[in-house]
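Students often ask why we bother encoding 3D structure as a string. The short answer is that it lets us treat folding as translation between two languages. Here is a chain of 209 residues written in the first language.
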Amino acid sequence: MTDPPLFLLAALVLVAIPGPNHLYITARSIGEGRRAGVASALGVESGMLVHIAAAAAGLSALVAASATAFGFLRYAGAAYLVFLAYKTLRARGGEDAPLLEPRPLRRVYLDGVLVNVLNPKVVLFFLAFLPQFVDQRAGAVPLQIAVMGLVTALIGLTADLGYAFAAGSVGGWLRARPGFVRRQRYATGLVYLGLGAAAVLAGPGGRRA
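And here it is in the second language, the structure alphabet:
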């Protein structure tokens, strides 16, 4: 790895910028509580491990170079987010409901994994960001990419958990407000639809989700 301090600084800056993953975790935390937000954060970064393995094995480059493979990933990710939006918008919740149909944490975790695995912008992020810090003279390029990816994922997990805890606290306060459940359901559904649209429009040059 070339210039580790610069890599850490760049990773911190990129992760600190609010992105789609943060929006997803925030929406889940506000709507279903802090535990759901934490499960979502763990799921998102577990999905990141799949991308790290793919990048280290050279599969990410193959996916990005194939219009068919990249298109499948893009539309599959968008379709899953639209499905989550549909489930959220049709959920039943009265004005006094404490949460919007809280799902089992295992299901919430798997949702986070799939949302990130099917996110084409993460593929582009690893292709654009990590190779800049690879030291060809040091050899073992896949190992360098894997190590840098894991460091980025750990930094990302810290940020994701911060969003989950903060949004969970805000959600607890908001749930005491009349009419919150209904408005939040629509807001969360729109967030998922917006993320789905962003997945469809993903192309070269995207930042980390």
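Translate back mentally: The CA atoms of residues 56 and 112 lie 22 Å apart. Keep this in mind for the problem set.
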